[in-house]
């Protein structure tokens, strides 16, 4: 709810528990610019270490909203992902892009950060 109040252009917020990107955040693996999808996320994906607990306290909501202001997405270490955007399609596509990178990384560990 904090994100809706702080950014009027946001009409949709997604919170999910995807396996690969959650593991990526837990292991401290950063997204690399493998193609155009990832170039926009490289060195910009915030990771919040919330201790894998609920975001219900207002202070945690403020921390997530602040992290989302960077690129509209944040990985929650040991927990999941939150993505905010103008609509459901944008939010879902962003979440899928975030999950796709670590799946590729773990399937074909050629990148130094994937080892």
Task: Write the topology of this structure.
Layout: H1 2-6, E1 12-16, H2 19-27, H3 36-39, E2 47-48, H4 58-71, E3 73-76, E4 80-85, H5 88-107
Parallel strand pairs: 2-3
Antiparallel strand pairs: 1-4, 3-4
Secondary-structure element order, as H and E? HEHHEHEEH
Helix/strand structural class: alpha+beta
Please tally the helical runs, counting DSSP H or I stretches of 4 or more residues.
Answer: 5
What strand line-up does the widest sheet have? Answer: 1-4-3-2
Tell me the number of structural domains. 1
> Per the principal axes of the C-alpha atoms, what is the gross shape?
globular
CATH H-level superfamily: Class II aldolase/adducin N-terminal domain
Residue share in helix: 40-55%
Task: Outline the structure in words.
By secondary structure, the protein is α+β, with helices and mostly antiparallel strands. The chain has a single domain (about 1-110), classed as L-fuculose-1-phosphate Aldolase (3-Layer(aba) Sandwich). The protein is built from five helices and four strands, in the order αβααβαββα. Strand 3 and strand 4 form a beta hairpin. Helix 2 (about 20-25) crosses helix 5. The longest helix has 20 residues, at about 90-105. The N and C termini lie far apart (about 35 Å). The model has no long low-confidence stretch (mean pLDDT about 80).
């Amino acid at each position: 709810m904090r994100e809706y109040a702080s950014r009027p252009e946001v009409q949709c917020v997604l919170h999910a528990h995807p396996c690969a990107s959650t593991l990526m955040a837990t292991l401290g693996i950063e997204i690399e610019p493998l193609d155009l999808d990832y170039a926009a996320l490289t060195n910009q994906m915030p990771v919040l270490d919330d201790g894998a607990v609920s975001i219900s306290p207002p202070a945690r909501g403020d921390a997530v909203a602040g992290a989302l202001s960077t690129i509209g997405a944040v990985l929650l270490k040991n927990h999941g992902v939150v993505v905010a955007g103008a609509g459901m399609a944008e939010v879902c596509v962003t979440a899928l892009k975030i999950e796709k990178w670590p799946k590729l990384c773990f399937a074909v560990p050629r990148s130094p950060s994937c080892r």
